[in-house]
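Customer escalation, tier 2.

The customer says the design service returned an amino acid string that "doesn't look like it belongs to this structure." They asked us to rerun it and document both sides in this ticket. The original C-alpha cells are below, unchanged.
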C-alpha cells in the first residue's frame, strides 16, 4: 500500500503473481478464500478491500484455540459482512501494538495476503491505520447479508 497525495494506492499484482505457486501449500479453507476470483476484484462485492475490522474474539474447542474476526461492510461497495474463523490459532500480532480488542482502530482493509507456513498459514492485513497478522492452521469465511438500506429501499 502506498499513501499518495490523492489518497492510497493498493496493488495486489505481486502477490497474485505468486499465488498460483503458493496456493498448493495453503490449507484447504485458506486456499479457497485466497484463490476466490472476487477476493482481489477491487470493484467486486466479495472483495475484502474497504471492509472494516470490528472485533476479534477468541475461544477454545476441544483444546484447539480459535479466533473470529468480524469485518463490517460499507453500503457504497459491499452488501455483506464477513466473518473469518481461524482454527488452531498460534499467534496474533497487531501494529501498532495494542489490545486486540482494539482491532476496529486499524481502519479499513486496504490489502490482505494469505501465506503458507509450517502447519498452516498467516493471514496478513494492511489497514489504513495499522496491520494485523493471524497465524493459524486454517480459516473459513462466512459472508452474511447486511441488509443495506441503500440496496433495499
Amino acid at each position: 500500500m502506498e499513501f499518495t497525495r490523492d489518497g492510497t494506492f493498493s496493488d495486489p499484482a505481486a502477490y497474485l503473481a505468486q499465488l498460483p505457486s503458493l496456493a498448493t501449500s495453503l490449507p484447504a479453507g485458506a486456499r479457497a478464500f485466497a484463490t476466490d476470483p472476487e477476493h482481489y476484484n477491487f470493484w467486486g462485492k466479495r472483495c475484502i478491500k474497504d471492509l472494516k475490522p470490528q472485533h476479534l474474539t477468541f475461544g477454545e474447542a476441544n483444546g484447539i484455540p480459535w479466533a473470529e474476526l468480524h469485518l463490517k461492510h460499507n453500503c457504497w461497495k459491499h452488501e455483506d459482512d464477513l466473518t473469518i474463523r481461524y482454527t488452531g490459532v498460534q499467534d496474533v500480532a497487531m501494529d501498532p501494538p495494542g489490545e486486540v480488542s482494539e482491532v476496529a482502530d486499524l481502519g479499513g482493509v486496504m490489502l490482505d495476503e494469505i501465506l503458507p507456513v509450517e502447519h498452516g498459514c498467516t493471514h496478513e492485513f494492511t489497514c489504513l491505520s495499522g496491520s494485523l497478522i493471524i497465524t493459524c492452521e486454517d480459516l473459513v469465511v462466512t459472508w452474511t447479508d447486511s441488509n443495506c438500506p441503500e440496496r433495499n429501499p
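Tier 2 assessment: The sequence is consistent with the input. The helical segments are 13-23, 28-34. The longest strand covers residues 52-61. Sent an explanation to the customer and offered a walkthrough call.
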